[in-house]
UniProtKB/TrEMBL annotation:
It holds the Pfam family DUF1499. It comes from the Bacteria. This is Uncharacterized protein DUF1499. The chain crosses the membrane at residues 20-38, 45-71, 77-100. Keywords: Membrane, Transmembrane, Transmembrane helix.
Length: 266
């Protein structure tokens, strides 16, 4: 008696979902690599990252259609369809997180310690070159007050030290934080305003963040105001791109000047 082997059909959509999901992961990693190591212009790298979620959604769609066929016809391919779903979720998790955080926290991308008179960015040739020709606007309503949810407004820093030591300490703090200092103009005299322009990058995607620091002389010291702008209006998973960055700098500057004053006193 001859044995008859029955072959259960396999829906093509299940393995297709798995391979497309894997391709989406590869595209995402490729785009992240382009951003992280800066081998191409930022818009081109972001375009690659935009394609990855679209490919992942296609993998999800094929997996869902495969589930329907498997349920209706008893076809094989459940494992491949589940793999496609998992791979797609890996790609979609990042954009979903950024979207939810943006809606929840409402973090503005152009923040300063002084909204009434926000620090202006330098228009020198070196500064414009470092910002690739971008000059953040000073139009009313564009710059938002630097504030941290749950901790309140980030205030300007008033230092009871002369302009020169305050400026030099700020320059050192900026470099210690890893900022690329583009221009540094110390204030001179009782009315001279000092300025430091710098560029930082977000930790994961290396998105550029433009920073300007203004030093205004006072009767007994210096007032320090800071403004930061995410150049392309987006943030990555490290959302400390505005007020948190300003607070980190001002806290470090305050500590540095306190230590310098204590050293001079001793």
């Amino acid at each position: 008696m001859r044995r008859v082997t029955l072959h259960e059909p396999v829906t093509w959509m299940a393995p297709a979902s798995r391979w497309i999901g894997l391709f989406a992961v590869v595209v995402m990693l490729f785009g992240l690599g382009l951003l992280r190591f800066g081998h191409v212009d930022l818009p081109d790298a972001l375009a690659v990252l935009t394609v990855a979620p679209a490919i992942a959604l296609l993998a999800v769609l094929l997996a869902l259609l495969a589930f329907v066929v498997i349920w209706r016809d008893g076809a094989r391919g459940l494992g491949a369809a589940l793999a496609g779903i998992v791979l797609a979720l890996v790609v979609l998790a990042g954009p979903a997180y950024v979207l939810v955080e943006g809606l929840r926290a409402h973090r503005p991308q152009d923040v300063a310690t002084d909204v009434a008179r926000p620090p202006a960015f330098s228009l020198s040739r070196a500064a414009l070159a470092a910002r690739h020709g971008v000059t953040p606007s000073l139009a009313p309503g564009v710059v938002r007050q630097a504030s941290i949810p749950g901790r309140g407004v980030v205030e300007p820093l008033d230092l009871d030290v002369p302009m020169a030591p305050a400026f030099n300490a700020a320059l050192k703090v900026a470099r210690d934080l890893g900022w690329d200092v583009v221009e540094a103009i110390p204030g001179k005299g009782r009315v001279g305003i000092g300025r430091i322009d710098a560029v930082d990058h977000t930790p994961i995607l290396r998105l550029p963040v433009d920073i300007t620091i203004r030093f205004t002389p006072r009767a007994q010291g210096v007032r320090v105001d800071v403004r930061t702008v995410v150049r392309h209006g987006i943030a990555d998973f490290a959302l400390a791109v505005g007020a948190e960055r300003i607070e980190q700098f001002l806290d470090a500057l305050s500590d540095a000047t306190d230590e310098s004053a204590e050293g001079s006193a001793s």
